[in-house]
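Today's session is about reading a structure prediction critically. Students often jump straight to the picture, but the first step is always the sequence itself: look for stretches that repeat, for charged clusters, for runs of hydrophobic residues. Only then move on to the predicted structure, which in these notes is written as discrete structure tokens rather than atom positions. Here is the chain we will use throughout the hour.
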Amino acid sequence: MTEPNDPPCFTYAIPSFLGFLERSTAAIDPRQFSFDQISAIDELMLLSKPGRSFQFSEGQRQTIRYFAHRAFEVGRPLELPGCSVDVLDRGLRGVVGLGDVLTLPVEERDGPSQRQRERTFMRAVKRLRHALYAAQIAIDEERADADVELPPLGDLKLLAGPTATVLPFRLETREAVKRREARQADAAATLWKRAAAYFWAAHNLDDPATPYAAGMRLLSEGLAAGFRLSAPDRITIAIAMLSAQWAVHRVFVPTYLSEPTFSVVRARAHYILDALEADDAERSIWQPEWVAGLCADVDRQANAIADAAHDRTYQRAELSVHRYIAQQAG
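Below is the predicted structure for this chain, in token form.
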């Protein structure tokens, strides 16, 4: 039977600078390490405030150097999100530097060169604190907000812009990135199935325009969201779209929709399929305005098809009214 590990025995009490710094050297969890480091830095900032006459002993100075080195060895393999090894190294060296400054007598800290060194150390320590705080937030989000999506910065239906241009404000861990990519792939697959279903539904001679327009709007929505269309999905949607276009042409051209207008509609449909199938290298050179313009153009062509359906409905209703009036006039 394995004996349980005894908890570490610490020399320095908390809350204190040396107490938190010592505890960070025994941390095995990234969040605990970042918490102890942030607490130690906060205590060090209080000791370094201008006007304070606090002074470390030579023994405490050597202890700070030892704890800072141990903290770096412990923190480096933890791979704190958003806190690089370089930031951790410079920040802990800044902690050592401030410890050296606070070891000097108060009267020796007032020289211009000494103040410049102290400011340099302070900037490195502050940068480490910000990075550790960001890492702590990322860890908390990973644990508590794994399945919660942040809302976009605007109404995508109104802006018609690609969501890929909206930068995330939080630092994502590798696991969170994998989950987000998986959710995006599932959302894209669902969107393509819905679009294909609408195009197949448009293969009728009663009302092909309404489902066809809905399918086109879904393709525009997918492009705006940054989704990519695979080759098999492209073939499935293209076949369904051709069937729908035949029905639309049979019912609406040329009575409610002119042949040139319908030719533009077909051209835009194939153009957005090409754009949806483009690889990452090609998309990297796209400007957000280009994508927004193509989405707006596809939506406009979908509206033209829907307007043709509305015109047919209105003309049928008008004809029915005339027939009714004629019957009443007898």
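Discussion point for the tutorial: The first helix runs from residue 17 to 24.
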